[in-house]
Design a protein that fits this description.
The complex is a heterodimer of chains A (158) and B (304).
Chain A (H helix, E strand, L loop, with lengths): L1 H16 L5 E4 L3 E5 L8 E6 L3 E8 L2 E6 L2 E6 L3 E2 L2 E3 L16 E3 L6 H11 L4 H7 L5 H10 L11
Parallel strand pairs in A: 8-9
Antiparallel strand pairs in A: 1-4, 1-7, 2-3, 4-5, 5-6
Chain B lengths: L1 H37 L5 H10 L12 H18 L6 H17 L10 E5 L6 E3 L4 E5 H6 L3 H16 L2 H4 L3 H13 L7 H25 L3 H18 L4 H13 L7 H4 L3 H8 L12 H11 L3
Parallel strand pairs in B: 1-3
Antiparallel strand pairs in B: 2-3
Classes of the chains: A alpha+beta (158), B mainly alpha (304).
Chain lengths: 158, 304
Amino acid sequence: MGKVIVALLLFCSGFIYGQSSDMLSVAVREAALRDRPNHLSRVVLRLNYADEVELIDSQRDWLRVRTGGTEGWLHQDAVSEERIVLGAGDRDVDRDAGSREVALAGRGFNQQVEEEFQSQSGLDFSVVDRLEARAVDHDELQRFLEEGNLRMPEGDES
Amino acid sequence: MISRIMQTVFASVLVGVLAITCSSLGAISSVGATIGVATGVIDERQAEGIRRTGELAERSFEEFTPEQEYYLGRAVSARIVAEYDLYEDEEANAYINNIGMILAYASDRPQLFADYRFQILESDELNAFAAPSGLVFVTRGMLRLAGSEDEVASILAHEIAHIQHRHGLQSIRTSRVTAALTSAALTGAQFATSSEIRELTAVFEDSIDDVTQTLFTAGYSRRSETEADVSAVEIMRRVGYDPRALVRFLERMQDQWNPDGPGFAQTHPSPESRIDDIRSEIRPDDPRETRERTERYHRYLGGI
């Protein structure tokens, strides 16, 4: 009986609060896993939207995470506690009772809406694509910082 | 034996309480959906979805995912580049991207769905825009008015702060936010019917209208502008730019100020009042402008 109550409690609390796991999903298009909690530090791995990582530690806005044997730092804004599911066309994605809420990537305003909007408005998105695709070299940024006597705040400072 | 019975009774009561807790959550959702239909805020199909997912009707811009914010921002950017020509000098644009990226990384929102990028517009107008997706635009006229790298940084930091505080999304009317988010909650990643996508695209377009109208003509609230200025000071301080450069730049703007002129004059409070609001934010030990940076400004933007 005790076990049943505990199970029910877990089920119910999982259902209400949604969180009971230290797994996180990448919530941005591409996230750089870095060797230090600093946006200009070395990239150890590039992660894609909806990739899963395991939370190990945190330092203010930065999270120490692990994925497939690789550890590194991600900014907290790069991840979501919700499990993000890519490319699910189903209207109802089954939720694991007691586990994380499921968020469908591409819900709402998405590529499809943009295409529809574009065909109706005739607006040109190719310029936007080009501007977004501008390369920014982080070694160059580092040089630019040093040359200008500027600094990038690290991890828990600032 | 008695204690065994008591245990069972206690357990049953506990299970009962849990069951009520769980089911009352459902009941609240169902009430919300009923009210929504009665007042005509949502249609029957949406209400069914809300009952099914247990989500309530009231929605805030804060619920937009980074991905939705990105697509809104891309369309806002498309409107901006439809309105203005681009200034295509590669060195000048690379330079403001260096300044802008450093500031963006030091902001409280360094990580958007896609990265920040910065672009100069071919216009003599004094103006700058931030699209919620992270594209920041600044006119030639604005950069010409600035007299140093730190002043350019103050313009870009102010725009980054608008993105950080999601001021663009805040300018979308609540009815559209609710419609968009409710619809998003009901559909999967792909739309089942063309009418679904048409409906959401109409909401999308209205939302873009709200944001672009704010950027081009209405302006953010005075409170949002102050918030952006205060955050700009903080962002500049973090990386070592002189926050006083924002005051210096606003003084230059005040000299050029024509309340009836195009651009910033239509959408921003007077520079004088902005200076009054931020002067107290500057600290004596804040970083100072350096000669090297100002020389760098003249090297890349001297001819602008």
